[in-house]
Amino acid sequence: MPFHDPELPLDQRVDDLLSRLTTGERIALLHQFTPAVERLGVAAFRTGQEALHGVAWMGPATVFPQAVGLGATWNDDLVRSIGEAVATEARAMRARDDRVGLNLWAPTMNLLRHPLWGRNEEGYSEDPRLTSAIAVAYTRGLRGDHPDHWRTAPVLKHWLAHNNETDRDTSSASVRPRVLHEYDLRAFRAAVEAGAVAGVMPAYNLVNGRPNHVSPHLREHLRTWTDQDLLVCSDAGAPSNLVDSEKYFDTHEEATAASLLAGVDSFTDHGTDASIITGRIQRALEPGLLTEADIDTAARRHLSVRFRLGEFDPGQGPYADPASHAFDTSGHQALAQEAAEQAVVLLKNDGLLPLPEGTRIAVVGLLADACKTDWYSGTLIRRSTPLDGLRERFGADSITFTEGVDRVRLKCAAGWLRVPDSDQTVPPQGPEIALDPALLTGRTDLAPLTCGPEPTEFALVDWGCGTWTLRAPDGRYLSVADDGFVRASADQPGGWVVQETFALVGHGDGYLIEHTGTGGYVSVAADGVKVADEPQVFTLEFLERGDEAVARAAAQADAVIVVAGNDPHINGRETEDRTTLDLPPHQDRLWRAARAANPRTALALVSAYPYAVADAHAQLPALLWTAHGGQAAGTALARVVAGDVSPAGRLPQTWYAADTDLPDLLDYDVIGSRQTYLYFDGTPLYPFGHGLGYSSFAYEDLVTAREGDLIRVAFTVTNTGPRAADEVAQLYTRAPRDPAAALALPHRQLMAHRRIHLAPGAARRLEFQLPLSELAFWDVRHDRWAVAPGAYEMLAGASSADIRIAATVDVDAAPIAARPVREAGLAAAGYDEQDATEIVDRTRTAGDAVRAVDGGTGELLFRDCDFGDGVCAVSVEASGEGAVDLISGSTATTVTVPATGGAYDYRLRTSGFTAAGVRDLRVRLRGPLRLARLAFTATAQPRETA
């Protein structure tokens, strides 16, 4: 058939296949699990294969560092190679298991503006340019180099402004136009324009009061950035959320139709049961909520991806060649180690590191003998913990290990809590067994805990935020199974709902043990220990505190490495934000005990996010950080500690000194609340781009030149130290400061970076070309990109705060004109500053309005409003009920808005208002009204129009 002919143009092949499908078959294409069309030889297909840092959920695979760790490498070339390896393994795994998909849901593009976000581990950086650079590299690797065929089809997550797990499917991010264009859209746009992206996935949250799954930005922005068909895949369950949790639509047929019209092409809902979604689409056709042309548009995008993957070619395209199906190769193993090494960030070093040969090292801490995976990891084929790596590098005789757990016994009225003796063995959990994280729950084939005269000693760990784990002597964690019994049965905490965590709730002289996963309490019954509504009171007997054991080990060593951090399955993960930047109290105790016993103590943080460790920075000679580094994490850390590798990872996000430096988790206005290195006015603990090494580098001879719409920047970096090492050269710009313009522009912003390797004494000349458009900001006065005129500083250095050399470039752009309010009016959301307001949806399909938070009083400030030679009236377009006060200098008026009948029922109310010339305007909103626009006229207007 013509659609099988690779010599025909892609559009013609898609048209041919589409024309052969019935309406029902076309609708069936729109669910994640698409059935086969056997009469045409079209195979079943599913969208969605997780591959954030390796192929996930489908069994053994090479596990690379977490995404935030890849961001910390600042190495585009390395990340592209990782993308190639991941895509190659996806193809190889699919060749033996057709459940493995080639539509990869990666990478995550959400900017790490707030470090308490639970999914911090999934993003690359708080900076849009660094995020897009790493994402472009990864997607190019995933896509492959063939001009027509794709190795895999990557989908970017999560569109748009998604940075909270708290109420993630019902909360709305208030994103003003400048933040939308300059921050959140910028990262996505660069990645899409690079041409290696097959689609995007909308996020669970709402933006400006409208769910992302019906976002007009999909049509107005995303699809204008490329001529290629983009496949928009919903997040799991999100289509149903539009009715069930968000209550944005009354019926699922309305919601499904609205999603499809907005641009969603593939519905991930109700698991493998496609009938529910396809039924909703079919029923939406009948009353005209959808047309068959709407179905065809989405079906075309689905088929376009499959054609590019080679599915309908003879032999299924070049990437289906078995010779290219490499899996777990020595090259992939070496790449995983290199990535883990390059991700290590040396935060502080007062000469302690590197440690020389023969050093007796005490390796202590809760993560010292751990190689943690996260929700989006594959199954480890091999693993290396920090303890493993240090023993291998320095020799087992030089290493002393103490985990630092608290050793306890628990007693209740029925006796001591104990793990029963059992002849049962736990099946192996090695690489030959594929575990789906969604199925990781407590086992039921082991006897539950009991209470009796003989106690069991448990390892108790406080992971912070009131979350604890208990571990039996055989290394198994206490877990609660579906039958409610408590067993020592889990290798590690895990699962969508973690069944291995508890809270110790003080009760008189003892504790109630609350099970986090169910909310029930540990209780003793005749048939064993279970979780029930009626709690049991337990007394806690400490046999040994972890800090005591750490102090003993530290005192006997030449140096101490405390390995601290998080377990990615416990707190700070998908579905759960953190509540503090502080290190968990248990781990804080451990480093303090180690330092008190031995001042030569280094703190190695292995975590998915930043911590506020100001005391550790002040008291310890060395600190390091690395994200969970995948299968080679321990080897990489040991090689850095030994000096085999000079660390050159750089922080991809700001590390703040305290929780008080942070805005509210749901405050998405990075400009107004001064978030990220771009706008933060305080002093961070460690700045964006920070990272030390074992060598030193000089920056010299910065030269700039303006050539048309390009700015050329060049400078020389020289290794002035004693070691061969990497350096990450960073180029920032600072816009001219014009107080008269009253523009809130970034303190500095990253424009380019390059990671280079230099031998001692070697130098390299680096050259960058910056399009003038990269200096632009979104001018809300005229709804367009604009470049402020003046002298721009070009800043080169080793971090956003360590600028070594600078030069200026004069940009002769047009001055930023005042707002033409007399001619164009004012969009309420186009303010310069605001207080106690939020942006909401103008209608369910498009537009923005503004309301006061909780229906109270809020205020908007519009600077430099040009009223020309005078206006005498203002018209307010608003819905709801309340009042709008306008104040400009000595002129003020109040426009009363009677109840309009509904949130989307906008009316015009007009009042006298006299103003002339250029002046600031304050607009105060009172009551539960929505303000969409203001219009100004030189003649009187009727009091109200519908």
From TrEMBL:
Pfam family membership, one: Glyco_hydro_3
Record-annotated Cellulose binding type IV domain positions: 819-938
InterPro entries assigned to the protein according to its UniProt record, in alphabetical order: Actin-crosslinking, BXL, Cellulose-bd_IV, Fn3-like, Galactose-bd-like_sf, GH, Glyco_hydro_3_C, Glyco_hydro_3_C_sf
MF annotations from Gene Ontology: hydrolase activity
Statement: the UniProt record of this protein carries the keyword Ribosomal protein: no
Keywords: Hydrolase, Signal
Fibronectin type III-like domain mapped to chain residues: 727-800
Family: Belongs to the glycosyl hydrolase 3 family.
PANTHER family the UniProt entry points to: BETA-D-XYLOSIDASE 5-RELATED, SUGAR HYDROLASE-RELATED
Protein name: Glycoside hydrolase family 3 C-terminal domain-containing protein
Source species of the chain: Streptomyces durmitorensis
